[in-house]
Amino acid sequence: MSTDKVELDALAVFSHPDDAELTVAGTLLKLKHLGYRTGVLDVTRGEMGTRGTPEGRAEEALEAAHVLKLDARLNLELPDGHVWVTEDARRAMVRVIRTHRPHVILTSHWDDPHPDHAATARIVREAARLASMRRYDEEGGQDAVKMPALAHAVYSRLVAPSFIVDVSDFVEDKMRAIRAHASQFCRADSDEPQTRISDEKFLDQIEYRMRYYGSLIGVVAGEPFYVREALNIDDPVALLTRPMNIYS
Ligand SMILES: [Zn+2]
Q1: How many of the other CB atoms lie within 10 Å of CB of 58?
Q2: Residues 27, 213: contact at Cβ < 8 Å?
């Protein structure tokens, strides 16, 4: 997989090598289908995981990237379990943003209960702003970029989604991309310790969740996002006459 200078329309930034698949794979598949260039940046190599090895997980990430038809799969190699908002982390994130120049970044929510996920959201927010400042990291020798738009994946019921993407046509491929991370999920031949996500019910729950969010907009499956900024709507009639569910 080419990871060098390719420019991207949308970049998903998540902490661990299977997070993007579990969270926004349907949206990435849909964006690809619409003709956009998509990429995933894993912030760590997932070396703190109970199951699997960093090398094995890197191979699984590439396999999943193939299923998702990504234009780039990148890794920031920050220490798993110790992701913080540091100057090094911000600078590394700014350099990725300036290299790949995404217009939109999909990432976790800053209120996510996993500390790495919450810190990743904060690093992304700060780096997105810093990447647009010409004088920040001048020694990196890269041009500043227009600040990318940020959309946060929603996991908590306390966060009301700003919008839900209809991913009805991409459920199967999303589940296939998740299962590419074979070391992490239910496998009869594995003698590694069970974890919350290796329980077979976990993947069912991921699917039920997609179906629930789909039901909120009257479709088969959906992925929810939160945007902190007010959305600029050009045509409210076109927007508000799309299928909705008044019981959402
Ligand atoms: Zn994670």
Answers
A1: 17
A2: no
Q: 3-state SS string over 90-139?
A: HHHHHHHHHHHCCCEEEECCCCCCCHHHHHHHHHHHHHHHHCCCCCCCHH
Q: Which of 126, 116, 30, 127 is nearest to 69 (CA)?
A: 30
For tokens 């046509």, the residue is 169
- 202 CA to middle of ligand 1, Å? 14
> What's the CA-to-centroid distance between 139 and ligand 1, angstroms?
32
Q: What is the pLDDT of residues 197-246, one digit of tens each?
A: 777 789 999 999 999 999 999 999 999 999 999 999 999 999 999 988 99
Which two three-digit tokens encode residue 172? 């199967």
Q: Could you tell me if residue 153 is left (phi over 0), alpha (psi between -120 and 50 degrees) or otherwise beta?
A: beta
What distance in angstroms lies between residue 30's CA and the mean position of ligand 1's atoms?
Answer: 22
User: How many whole angstroms separate alpha carbon 79 and alpha carbon 74?
Assistant: 15
Q: Which residues have C-beta within 8 Å of that of residue 247, sequence separation ≥ 6? A: none
